[in-house]
Each structure stands twice: as C-alpha cells, then as structure tokens.
C-alpha cells in the first residue's frame, strides 16, 4: 500500500502537500512566517490534529537546511534568553491540546498573531531604529523575550504556528536580515526537535505520518535552495514587509476558517 492510498489522498491533494513542503523550505531560508500558508494547506488536506504531526518532521528538515545555510549569523544571547520561556509555552500548549477543539485552537492563535503584529508595527514606528539585538540584556528586553517565548512555545506546540510569533519578536528586537534568519534557524531546530516526544505522546506522530513525511521531505530541498537564492535579492525593508504580511495572512486564515 503506497502513502497516498494509506492517507486516502488524491493526486491533487498530494500535489498541494508537496507545494506546502516546498514552501516550508522557502520560508526557512527566505521569508520566515510564510510557512503559515503551509500550515493552512496541511490542515485543509489532512485532519486538523493529524496535520500538525505530519508537518512537524517536514519543518525539522527545513530547520536543518536553514542552520546549514545561516549558522554563522545566529545571535546566541537572544536564544538563551528565549529557551526557558519557550519550554514553559510548549508544556502549556501540550496541556491546551488535551482539551481544546480545533476551532478554539485556530481562533486563539489567529488572535494572538494579529495582536502581536499590531504591537510590533506600533513599536517599530515609535522605537529607536538603531537598537541592537543585544537589548535582550536590559530588563525590558528580558520581559519581552519571556513574553514572546511563552507565546512562541505555545503556538508552535499547538499548531506549528510559532514562526510568525518569533518573526515578530526578532523584528521588534531590531534584527537585520541574516541575523534574523540565523537566529530563527537554530531556535526552531532546537524547539521543533524538543516537541517530538510531546507529539508522539499525543498520538500526532506515528508510522503512517512518518511515511507521508518521507515522501514529502524531498520537496523541502528545492524550496530551501530557492529561498537561499531569493534572500540576497530582497532588501531589508521588503524583507520586513513580507514577514509582516505573511504573519497577518496566517492570523486571518486561522480566524476565518
């Protein structure tokens, strides 16, 4: 029995998932947050809860490719500030998944994404644009890192939607393009790998889901290569606009589904 038959997928549905996997690769090496479109495609083709388990290994493949591409640009002080809060968010997200239905999950995350986008845009218009990423060492920076960390851990556990949350944090912290991509690459590789035991425990990752992942992972690579080619042709202002637009799109599609 092949993978498409196992999941009762039509050729068109498999093609949609393959495109979503390609978009994951592109988002990891070019426009972080754009994989909210992939999240929507997976949730439309597969059962909502099952889609999160299938998507997670695909994201990890993209994370590995992003780390290999941008490993020299990571800002580790920011990462160390984020991880404890993210861990708390992942635990909270796991508990939330035990009782929340799909509609509650979608509405909650969509509202969070849109709220944080609005806050980030407002902060960037009023803050000093010369702030450096090492502002995480200040009291205000630590509070912001913890707040975004908890929300990022929660949303990434519940719906693999942590990308837009962390995109908004890194933009608000003043990261430039390559620092943004390098820091987010390591962040999501570590966080997504840490989510695997929780997802297995919830029954979201199993043999059939891994078989589908094996078929789809091949499409992540060309997407990552396309992103690596495109990122050097996107200026900083356009990069930020694309990240914000992708976040708004992701929040709206979650609220309106």
UniProtKB/TrEMBL annotation:
Location within or outside the cell: Cell membrane
Transmembrane segment boundaries: 49-70, 82-99, 105-122, 178-198, 210-231
UniProt KW keywords: Cell membrane, Membrane, Transmembrane, Transmembrane helix, Transport
Superkingdom field: Bacteria
Pfam families to which the protein is assigned, alphabetical: TauE
Membrane topology, as annotated: Multi-pass membrane protein
Chief localisation class: membrane
Alphabetical list of InterPro entries matching this protein: TM_pro_TauE-like (IPR002781), TSUP (IPR052017)
Protein name: Probable membrane transporter protein
UniProt source species: Streptomyces neyagawaensis
Organism classification: Bacteria, Bacillati, Actinomycetota, Actinomycetes, Kitasatosporales
